[in-house]
Amino acid sequence: MKHVTIKEVAKKLNVSVSSVSKAFNDRNDIKKETKELILKVGKEMGYHPNPIAKKLSQQKTFNIGVIVPEFVNAFFPEVIIGIQDVFLKRDYQVLIMQSNESYETELKNVQTLEGNMVDGLIVSLSRETHNLEYFKSLINQGYPIVFFNRYNEDLHASKVIFDDFKWMFFATEHLIKQGFEKIFHLSAYQHLLLAKNRIRGYKKAMSKYKIEIEPDWIVETGLFLEEGDAAMQKLIDENNIPEGITCGNDMVAIGAMRTIKRNGLHIPEDIAVTGFTETPLVELVDPPLTSVIQPTHDMGETAAKLLLKQIENDSPIPETVILNGILNVRASSMKKE
């Protein structure tokens, strides 16, 4: 199908190109009759304004880039919904890319989105990201960027994070108050800042109640169901069985629960379990899983609003927003009378 240009519409009506441009941009400095005629003839000819040219004339593409580590867990899709809810109302398009937990893929994602002239980026770092030079160069250039969930303290940029320390403290304290003492922590990858903060929360609760943590009670597990399954099986095989476990996320907890039951043990009578994030699966497993509710949608909305602030107000001062949660107690962690 032939693309009709603004010049062809102008030639057809024997008017200037600028008059046609004014008509299709709904300018007031053109006669009403002329504008209506141009719009009518343009429509008949099949002319459509070029949205890319319009955006470039405004020095914006109205495109936003979002980069997340993975889509396997429900956490990141829920955050993305919050991001989209903000930007779609402002006529921005949201371009979503996945790093697949790879630094090299993440870097290519950033460069691709930058090359496509997105107006800003919202990023959650991959587990492999240690080299921060490219992000630092973007920040130093004043490029609008917001990090969420996974970030690095060496990046002087706006971020939206969760109070991981506080809520892992409460999850651990809950198990202690149920009467459990030999409580293990199945951690996410321990170099991640969120994992470090959750470990600190676990340790603080154990210290508060004067429970000495053995070196093998903190187990680096990962983030996926299979990793929780394997970590729990290893503990059972070694006859190193805890009374309770706090997990770095729900998928690890659900994997551990699957292994516990497969080995003929009962939840919570033999091993109590808590998760983290409050994914949709927590109420579908048996018994239902105690979990920390992270406000994923709010996290996405907040990150989007911070980015809009940078784009529209040219705000250079980084802001940090720390979100709160709720411990949703269910049968997986409640000691029966």
Explain this structure to me?
With 337 residues, the protein is an alpha/beta fold. It is built from twelve helices and twelve strands. The strands form three sheets. A six-stranded parallel beta sheet has the order 2-1-3-4-5-11, sandwiched between helices. Strands 7-6-8-9 form a four-stranded parallel beta sheet, with helices on both faces. Strands 10-12 form a two-stranded antiparallel ribbon. Strand 3, helix 7 and strand 4 form a beta-alpha-beta unit. The termini are far apart. The mean pLDDT is 92.
Search tags:
single chain, 337 residues, alpha/beta, 434 Repressor (Amino-terminal Domain), Rossmann fold, 3 domains, 6-stranded parallel sheet, 4-stranded parallel sheet, 12 helices, 12 strands, 15% strand, elongated
Quick structural gist:
By secondary structure, this protein is of the alpha/beta class. The protein has helices spanning 6-13, 17-24, 32-45, 51-57, 75-89, 103-115, 133-140, 164-177, 193-208, 225-237, 250-262, 296-313; strands at residues 63-68, 93-98, 120-123, 145-148, 158-162, 183-187, 218-220, 244-247, 272-274, 291-293, 320-323, 326-328. Helix 11 (250-262) links the parallel strand 8 and strand 9.
**Structural class of the secondary elements?**
alpha/beta
**What string gives the helices and strands in order?**
HHHHEHEHEHEEHEHEHEHEEHEE
Backbone CA Rg: 26 Å
| Major sheet summary line | 6 strands, parallel
The count of strands amounts to 12
- Overall tally of structural domains: 3
The average pLDDT value, as a whole number, equals 92
Q: How is the quaternary structure best described?
A: single chain
The shape is: elongated
How much helicity do the residues have?
Answer: 40-55%
- Spatially, the strands of the biggest sheet line up as 2-1-3-4-5-11
Low-confidence stretches: none
Strand content: 5-15%
Number of helices: 12
CATH superfamily of the largest domain: Response regulator
Distance between the termini: 74 Å
> According to CATH, what is the topology of the largest domain?
Rossmann fold
CATH class of the largest domain: Alpha Beta
CATH architecture of the largest domain: 3-Layer(aba) Sandwich
